[in-house]
Write a structure and sequence with these properties.
The chain has eleven helices and nine strands. By secondary structure, the protein is α/β, with parallel strands linked by helices. It has one domain (about 10-330): TIM Barrel. Strands 1, 2, 3, 4, 5, 6, 7, 8 and 9 form a nine-stranded parallel beta sheet that branches. Strand 6 (about 200-205), helix 7 and strand 7 (about 245) form a beta-alpha-beta unit. Helix 5 runs parallel beside helix 6 and helix 6 (about 180-195) packs parallel to helix 7. The protein is globular, with a radius of gyration of 19 Å.
Length: about 325
């Protein structure tokens, strides 16, 4: 597929702290190297003091990215560990962690997996934005043991976030058994949702990376051509106000910017990408050189258009506006 190189433009990113709250999950995706079981002795649920210790390391970071497995209270280990902390649901615990992040001067962005409308509504006041990867609208073998990866459930949650005016991140995971036409269908579905609700601020185009000891450990990751074509299709299909994000530690991002990508997501100088620990974050100063002549610009977990609409969670409003003013003066 051909494409026209972009003229010099602005490429954005967010300074974040990555908090992997738990590695328990009700799903069992064939490619996931993050999930652990209680039986392995490696499963955990971070207690509040451990989370606060991570958040308290904040320097110039402005976002707290909370990520974890889905609906752990539906697993025996999750129930046990939550009860030990005095909670019966992950949503209840996450609300307390979001409050903690705000107290530490960080804007929460939560990736909690599938939630129903009421749980989303409860979390909304304490988050600047939220996210859920659509991954694919196709029914694939890799998701056979994962009830939360039913495309209909994921679409419903993304739509519910739109009804609640939650600035939202979603995206595609490329190379997990879907076909090219499935990627196009997924992008068209995201475009449809955004045209109806107007809340999707960015779409991630992320490549599958094989992990040791997983059922897909011997599978081949997508080629650059597949990533390039997906980014080109994303820019063609998605509305212009939706950013196209490519992870700089997982992709040939310099070349993908020329295809229409304009965001590099959250980058941390303090914490690993715990989902892909084999892929270190790039240094910001190096990024500035690598993407030249494009300009690198810091953003918040919530994009400027949604700040103007006041769609941030009410408890994050003051912090959001203060940081937005600081970044506006800086740039």
């Amino acid at each position: 597929m051909g494409y026209k190189p972009m003229h010099p433009s602005t490429v954005t990113y967010s300074k974040n702290i990555f908090v992997p709250v738990t590695n328990l999950c009700r799903n069992d995706c064939a490619y996931c190297g993050f999930k652990r079981t209680f039986e392995s002795g490696e499963a955990y649920l971070m207690p509040p003091h451990e989370v606060r210790a991570i958040l308290a390391r904040r320097g110039s970071e402005k976002e707290a990215l909370f990520t974890f497995g889905e609906q752990i209270e539906k697993t025996d280990a999750g129930k046990l560990l939550l009860n030990e902390l005095g909670y019966t649901s992950m949503t209840d615990y996450l609300i307390e962690l979001c409050k903690m992040a705000i107290d530490e001067g960080l804007l929460p962005h939560s990736n909690p997996g599938i939630l129903d409308y009421e749980d989303l509504k409860r979390l909304q006041p304490f988050n600047a934005s939220m996210g859920l990867m659509l991954e694919t609208t196709a029914k694939i073998e890799a998701h056979k043991r994962s009830p939360g990866k039913d495309p209909a459930l994921r679409i419903e949650m993304i739509e519910n976030a739109g009804k609640l005016r939650i600035p939202f991140t979603t995206g595609l995971l490329v190379g997990i058994g879907e076909r090219k036409e499935d990627r196009i269908n997924s992008l068209n579905e995201i475009a449809r949702i955004h045209e109806e609700f107007g809340h999707i601020q960015e779409v991630i185009i992320q490549p599958f990376h094989p992990k040791p000891y997983t059922r897909m450990s011997m599978c081949t990751p997508p080629t650059f051509d597949e990533m390039r074509d997906t980014v080109v299709e994303a820019r063609r299909i998605l509305p212009e106000d939706v950013a196209i994000q490519v992870p700089p530690n997982l992709t040939s991002f310099e070349r993908l910017i020329e295809c229409g990508a304009n965001d590099l997501g959250g980058i941390s100088s303090l914490t690993l990408d715990y989902i892909n620990p084999e892929a270190p974050w790039p240094i910001i100063k190096e990024l500035e050189k690598l993407i030249a002549p494009h300009r690198l610009k810091e953003r918040l977990a919530i994009y400027p258009a949604f700040i103007k609409k006041s769609w941030m969670g009410e408890r994050t409003r003051d912090l959001t506006l203060r940081y937005a003013d600081e970044l506006e003066r800086l740039f």
